[in-house]
Amino acid sequence: MIWKKPKIEYIGDIAVIKAPFNNINEEEVTKLANEILEKNKFIKSVFLAATPVIGELKVRDYRYLAGENRSETIYKEHNCMFKVDIKKVFITPRLSYEHLRIAKLVNEGERIINMFAGAGLFSIIIAKKSKPKIVHSIDINPDAYKYMVENIEINKVKDIVFPYLGDAKEVIEKKLLNSSDRILMPLPDKALEYVRYAISAIEKIGYIHLYLHVSAKKDEFLNKAEELTKKELEKYNIEYKIINSKEVRPVGPRLYQVVVDVYIEKN
Ligand SMILES: C[S@@+](CC[C@H](N)C(=O)[O-])C[C@H]1O[C@@H](n2cnc3c(N)ncnc32)[C@H](O)[C@@H]1O
Q: Does ligand 1 lie within 6 Å of residue 95's CB atom?
């Protein structure tokens, strides 16, 4: 098999080498790790992404390659700071554009729920860049929750962002029914299944942002994402309008992450 040059992702002072999992050239990867350390004085550790992002918690295995054997770092995005351990919580700079796009859609005084918040990136960036009244920020991963709590402190948004540890559907059913104006669902595995809880959390009218993984040809994946969303929304007693759908990032061969922005009115 031909050795394809791997991609490199920078998260704070950690570099992550992403090579095809079934075609790792050990010698080349070690050489590359050392080159990264030599050329980038701000990079202190290099890891190899050893698996895709897997499981409910959306974390992956990493293999230490060079520099300090440390997986915790401070990642900066849109003038906010996020403490994360790349081995314990989901984190990618590839959502950076999307974090800001959503923040710019938020109107003053909005009440927001981030159902799958990870280390709090959407929630904190919204709190810093827009003027929401409150952002309820939920994650089921205890490590993500721990970092989210710390990141809320670090970014001084304690009076706006409220962290919850638990399953988003249970948190909504127990505490947040009919409470909010905008719901973020940045977990493609569960977005469609959890739409009913997102709807139940909207007070009367509001917006839902669904993140989906869609397998289709390049010119068909947006249509497919909208069709899947409509099929789910048709089940509920609501009026709705899909106001936008767009590619977030390619995630595999003929596999795309898509965001669908929906306006809904409850009857
Ligand atoms: C793709 S990551 C979120 C990324 C994050 N929003 C960001 O911008 O970096 C999805 C998150 O959903 C969490 N999760 C999975 N199932 C959940 C559930 N039922 N309720 C709440 N959180 C859940 C995972 O622990 C993970 O942190």
A: yes
Residues 251 and 120 in one domain: yes
Asked if residue 143 and residue 22 are part of one domain, the reply reads: no
* 65 in contact with ligand 1, CB cutoff 6 A: no
My answer on whether 113 and 224 are in the same domain is yes
User: For 27-44, what is the mean pLDDT?
Assistant: 95
Do 237 and 215 touch, CB atoms closer than 8 A? no
Q: How confident is the model at residue 23 (pLDDT cuts 50, 70, 90)?
A: confident
In the reported structure, the alpha carbon of residue 119 is separated from the centroid of ligand 1 by a whole-number distance in angstroms of 9
The CA 25 to ligand 1 mean position distance, Å, reads 32
pLDDT tens per residue across span 138-193: 999 999 999 999 999 999 999 999 999 999 999 999 999 999 999 999 999 999 99
Report how far apart, in Å, the C-alpha atoms of 190 and of each of 57, 75, 116, 212 are: 12, 26, 9, 9
Ligand 1 within 6 A of CB of 57: yes
- For the stretch 99-135, pLDDT in tens is 999 999 999 999 999 999 999 999 999 999 999 999 9
User: Is residue 37 in a domain?
Assistant: yes
Q: What's the distance, CA 209 to chain centroid?
A: 12
The whole-angstrom separation of Cα 60 and Cα 54 is 6
